[in-house]
Amino acid sequence: MMIYKSVSWISFHVFVFFQCFTLAPCEVKYELEFADSIMNCPDFNNDKIKADTIKLGLIEGEDGEDSFGLNGVLEVCVPLDDEYDAIIDVCKETEVACDPVMQADMNLCKSMKEENVPWDPVFKKMNVSECPIIEGSYEITNLILSMEPFKGCLSRDFCGYYSVKLKIVNKLETLSCHMAYIEIVEKQV
Fold this sequence. Notes:
Elements: H1 2-23, E1 28-34, E2 39-40, E3 49-50, E4 55-61, E5 64-76, E6 85-93, E7 98-107, H2 120-126, E8 136-145, E9 160-169, E10 174-188
């Protein structure tokens, strides 16, 4: 029975491969898919910056009906000044490890003056443009995560699951550590 299922699965994929590359024009595109929430990093207690209520989901945006966006409340429980850095780590999840793909490290306050940093839209939604970022609850509503920068560079080689980790750190401690999971998938057009 298992051989039959394997043969059927292989036959289907050979048929799709044959159809896409020999018979008819078959275009593929690559898309990012997000998990539905932002979570705490394993074994880390986020008591200084809380993102428990922030959800990822589909909203109307520049990429059409299937744009991803953030909604929820970001709670900042300590003031953030120019002593803090934001670190983003992206890893490709495999069966045995998390292979590093990219890391970005920037001073939180200095990066407020730049528009091409990943967290610039968050600062705009928080209505924050300078440091220190004061303690408080910041509502994040319909924050669109643009897929535009990725559209031209995704390929079959990038398909798979990834973890994206955002840490806020200073020289003495890690203040917060949050994660989200994404998947890059191939779809036929």
